[in-house]
Specification:
Radius of gyration: 36 Å
Distance between the termini: 24 Å
Structural class: alpha+beta
Number of strands: 13
Strand content: 5-15%
Number of helices: 10
Shape: elongated
Number of domains: 2
Order of helices and strands: HEEHHHHEEEEEEEHEEHHEEHH
Length: 463
């Protein structure tokens, strides 16, 4: 080997080592950044010596797509869990303290006490007071549900705005990547940004990606709608300023295709938008239906107990009822009418021991009747059983949601760990590589020093 060849090899080695050190230093600086993919320098033999052909970015497309799907599923499930917990507290209260089931049970007990001692006006007043609490809880439950729906609608609108912003940012990154790939420029940082944007998009809607020439990416939703192809597609939503019980929420449209809402406690939704639509249009509406059915049945069981506005069959009936002022002692009424008859006097002789109506009320509360369930089906049961079943329905959904969240969290953790093992920076490995490169650099420097000494000897010999 000639001295010129050895010199060329040493120079290439120093240059390669310098570039590798730069790559390792960048990797170490990004330790802890989940959106950074580890870089590595690829060497290729080239006489004399070797050279760095390219800087590669660690990535596994299959794992990345699985991670996007898991992230979308977990975000949707977490949204459902949070929404159900919020509804449980706002409508049924802590430990179901304000639920229709608990209030109706207390009212039933008050009627039983009054029927056992119908001459005791205080017991009548107590029964009316508990009826007022029951009605107030039904009113407040209706108000809370519609407030919840309004808030979900606002969050959906904010999510749609966020999605459109992310798609605009995605176009900027994607254009940089495609143009840079065609021109042979370094686009690794842009690829990191684009992947980070895909993760954020998947938290809102379930997506899959298709990679075309020049690293161009197309995004489609699980419903088959195109979300991005060269440019963002329109994602539209018309928010509703305020919700009444009869209000119907608007749909989200992606490139004109409606986004499908999720279903079930362990939701089928992917992304927070579909989950919020499920909470707004299914869960909350189902709970309102149960409150309305409870109020209608109570009105039938005890004629005259309630007064109301509007049509009894219209949605939101539970929010439009009040205790009849004729029996409300706080409004100057006579609570003994609960014993004698509110709409017609069933005790014309004024018998203080008369309790036929009170016993009839208790029997009516336990009598089977046909109810519409939150799922839209009909069922025959007592009013007491129906209110208990309503609480059970919500609790069953919460249990299924919590179980689903646990499973989907585990799946997300598994895919994230598998992906990070491939793409994330391992500080120990990088430090070990850094030590090897330092040794390589030192060896190349010693080779240059040896060549320099040999050239000096050669020059001295020729003088």
């Amino acid at each position: 080997m000639s001295l010129s060849t050895a010199l060329s090899i040493a120079q290439n080695s120093l240059l390669n080592t310098s570039r590798q050190l730069g790559v390792v230093s960048r990797n170490l600086s990004e330790v802890g950044n989940p959106d950074y993919a580890r870089r590595s320098a690829t060497l290729s033999s080239l006489a004399p010596g070797a050279r760095i052909v390219q800087i590669q970015r660690a990535m596994n497309d299959a794992l990345f797509k699985q991670n996007l799907t898991a992230l979308s599923g977990w975000t949707a499930q977490d949204t459902i869990v949070s929404g159900l917990d919020r509804l449980q507290i706002s409508v049924n209260g802590v430990d179901n303290s304000t639920s229709a089931a608990k209030s109706l049970g207390e009212f039933q007990n008050a009627l039983q006490l009054y029927s056992a001692n119908p001459s005791n006006r205080t017991l009548g007043e107590n029964a009316v007071e508990i009826a007022r609490t029951l009605v107030r809880n039904l009113n407040n439950g209706t108000s809370s549900i519609q407030s919840f729906r309004t808030d979900m609608d606002r969050q959906i609108a904010a999510g749609v705005d966020e999605l459109n912003g992310l798609l605009a940012d995605f176009k900027t990154a994607n254009d940089e990547i495609t143009a840079g790939t065609r021109a042979g420029r370094d686009v690794l940082d842009a690829l990191d940004r684009r992947d980070a944007l895909l993760k954020k998009i998947s938290e809102l809607v379930p997506i899959s990606t298709i990679t075309r020439g020049d690293n161009d990416v197309v995004i489609v939703t699980s419903d088959g709608a195109t979300l991005f192809e060269t440019s963002p597609r329109a994602v539209t939503f018309e928010p509703t300023p305020a919700y009444g019980a009869g209000s119907t929420g608007n749909n989200i449209r992606i490139d004109g295709v409606p986004l499908t809402a999720g279903a079930g406690g362990n939701t089928t939704a992917g992304g927070s938008l579909a989950a919020m639509m499920q909470l707004r249009d299914q869960t909350a509406v189902g709970m309102q239906l149960q409150l309305d059915e409870t109020a209608r049945a109570l009105n039938d069981a005890i004629p005259g107990l309630l007064t109301f506005t509007g049509n009894i069959t219209d949605p939101g009936f539970a929010g439009r009822i009040s205790v009849n002022a004729a029996i409300d002692h706080n409004a100057g009424g006579n609570p003994e009418l609960l014993r004698d008859g509110i709409l017609a006097n069933a005790n014309p002789d004024g018998n203080a021991s008369f309790n036929d109506l009170l016993i009839g009320y208790l029997e009516a509360l336990e009598a089977p009747r046909t109810f519409q369930t939150a799922a839209g089906a009909t069922a025959s049961m007592s009013l007491m059983g129906y209110t208990a079943d309503s609480v059970s329905w919500l609790e069953a959904n919460r249990k299924a949601a919590a179980s689903g969240a646990e499973a989907k969290s585990a799946l997300l953790m598994k895919t994230s760990t598998a992906l990070s093992n491939v793409t994330n920076v391992n500080e120990d490995e990088e430090m070990a590589l850094l030590l090897e490169l330092e040794h390589s650099y030192a060896a190349s420097a010693r080779l240059l020093q040896t060549i320099d000494n040999m050239l000096a000897v050669l020059l001295d010999a020729t003088r």
